[in-house]
UniProtKB/TrEMBL annotation:
Its EC number is 3.6.4.13. Residues 33-202 form the Helicase ATP-binding domain. It comes from Alicyclobacillus macrosporangiidus. The keyword ATP-binding applies. A motif (Q motif) lies at residues 2-30. It comes from the Bacteria. This is ATP-dependent RNA helicase CshA.
Length: 525
């Protein structure tokens, strides 16, 4: 087994690693540290939370010389990540006294300029702000010997590529270039070769991109019930710290407000907040002052917060990479995690695509019913009432009730008091459902008209198979099937009907075009 001492690191770096409590190198560290120490360019790919930061951090710090100019540059896609990676570098370089500096937007540039002037050896920054310094002439990169792109696939993607090119153009051509991420597409790897010299490819766990210690589940929800479903799911989980991802900044704001209104300890993070706000929110999350962080994909990559037990995709991620990185915020460094994805009927295909491309094992779960949640809440109130009786000190309240106790049933009085105390929390609520109108189906079922191209060779067995494969519903959800000359009608259980409808309303199956519509009873006559 490899140990850190095998790398012949300087005493001061080795001591720092010991202080950090790293006993043995993770696989990506074991493979990359020697290569980087020897001066190779490296493309390093390993699952989220497996120590990629130190895999480049340790050898980069080790290779930095005593000269007081910028020798290494690390680029990250977000400010929070730059801050975090800078923290890791500071720890590794603690005894070597390597001077590191995070440089990112939203922070006073004057302060950064003064800090650079004091002789920084390693800069960790976001591309925009680094370019800003280059243009102002306040950051000189001509002596840079090592460049790291953390989250390299993201950095070489559309949003960043021009900035990256411009920055790399400021560094010497014979620099050492290091690329790290949990995900690399073949295209990005090919593109990366342009900026590298004969790189070594290190890939850990080629087969699985997601972390096996993170269980992955999904809940089928209806758009209009999403908030309610989320709350029920959270209430049925023991969340220590959780990150809830939304697609848009506005979605983050809205969900944050809605959750606060419902009494959850949450705050939101996205790119439109001031840096001071972003710092405050991250601090509240890292210290556990809030239990849920609601965020856009700005929090998807690289963030390492201890004890994140849950990642919840409130909005389904738009591509497999985003899924991998988002859920990678939990299940880090050998800990367990749970990744939850909410999926609406319209998004079901996307879920299946993510599942296919990440080879993820996702298990379907049922949103707790209102009855489940109601029972849990009722139990909680019963407990509270019993505890309150046991704690005593009720004399004052008894006096208040004295004047009505003769005229009203004591149980009625207790019920009224509970209604007031629970502020509506215990009111009966109704389950909302997808409205297909009257389709002339058996009670509890929805009848659909299915049109499968010109081919009439479809058997009832084929239909059941198609429906369960495409919509991910059990075969039992399919009821009566009528195959006429040119028309086919299928009855689907109410609960599964929205998913079947959204998956099959317009799709392809075995090369045939499939259309599906809720049946209208009149057309049956
Ligand atoms: N050798 C080690 N022994 C113990 N813990 C480690 C070791 N290396 C790293 N860690 C810890 O593992 C956690 C994850 O590390 P890191 O953030 O570098 O992961 P990553 O691979 O960069 O993940 P991501 O793809 O999400 O960016 C950190 O908390 C880090 O301190
Ligand atoms: Mg990382």
């Amino acid at each position: 087994m490899t140990t850190f001492t095998d790398f012949a690191l300087s005493k001061r770096v080795q001591q720092a690693i010991d202080d950090m409590g790293y006993e043995e190198p993770s696989p990506i560290q074991a493979a990359c540290i020697p290569l980087i120490l020897e001066g190779h360019d490296v493309i390093g790919q390993a699952q989220t939370g497996t120590g990629k930061t130190a895999a480049f951090g340790i050898p980069v710090v080790e290779r930095v010389g005593p000269e007081g100019h910028v020798q290494a540059l690390v680029l990250t896609p977000t400010r929070e990540l730059a801050i975090q990676v800078a923290g890791e570098f500071r720890k590794i370089g603690k005894y070597k006294r390597v001077r590191t500096l995070p440089i990112y937007g939203g922070q006073s540039i004057g302060h950064q300029i003064r800090a650079v002037q004091q002789g920084v050896q390693i800069v960790i920054g976001t591309p925009g702000r680094v370019l800003d310094h280059i243009h102002r002439g306040t950051l000189k990169l001509q002596h840079v010997r090592m460049v790291v792109l953390d989250e390299a696939d993201e950095m070489l993607d559309m949003g960043f590529i021009e900035d990256i090119e411009a920055i790399l153009g400021e560094t010497p051509a014979d620099r050492q270039t290091l690329l790290f991420s949990a995900t690399f597409t073949d295209d990005i790897k090919r593109l990366a070769l342009r900026y590298m010299r004969d790189p070594e490819h290190v890939t850990v766990n080629r087969g699985e991109v997601t972390v096996p210690l993170t269980d992955q589940v999904y809940y089928k929800v209806l758009e209009r019930n999403k908030l309610e479903s989320l709350c029920r799911i959270i209430d049925s989980e023991e969340v220590q710290l959780g990150i809830v991802f939304c697609r848009t900044k506005r979605g983050v704001d809205e969900l944050t407000e809605a959750l606060i209104a419902r009494g959850y300890l949450v705050d939101g993070l996205h790119g439109d907040l001031s840096q001071a706000q972003r710092d405050r929110v991250m601090k509240k999350f890292r210290t556990g002052e809030i239990e849920l962080l609601v965020a856009t994909d700005v929090a998807a990559r690289g963030l390492d917060v201890e004890n994140v037990t849950h990642v919840i995709n409130y909005d389904i991620p738009q591509d497999p990479e985003s899924y991998v990185h988002r859920i990678g915020r939990t299940g880090r460094a050998g800990k367990r995690g749970l990744a939850i994805t909410l999926v609406t009927p319209r998004e079901f295909k996307l879920l299946k695509q993510i599942q296919r491309e990440t080879k993820a094992r996702m298990v379907a779960r049922e949103v707790p019913s209102l009855a489940d949640v109601a029972e849990r809440q009722a139990e909680m109130w019963r407990q509270r009432i019993i505890e309150t009786i046991q704690n005593g000190g009720l004399g004052h309240y008894r006096a208040i009730l004295d004047s009505i106790i003769d005229e009203h049933d004591p149980v009625d009085i207790a019920c009224a008091a509970l209604k007031l105390a629970s502020a509506g929390e215990l009111e009966a609520r109704e389950e909302a459902d997808y409205d297909f109108g009257d389709t002339g189906a058996t009670p509890g079922m929805v009848r659909f008209f299915v049109n499968i191209g010109r081919s009439n060779r479809v058997t009832p067995g084929d239909l059941v198979r198609m429906i369960s494969e495409e919509a991910g519903v059990p075969g039992q959800a399919v009821g009566k099937i009528d195959i006429f000359d040119r028309f086919t009608f299928v009855e689907i259980e109410q609960d599964s009907a929205p998913f079947v409808y959204e998956s099959l309303r317009q799709s392809r199956w075995g090369g045939m075009r499939v259309n599906m519509e809720p049946a209208r009873p009149r057309s049956r006559r």
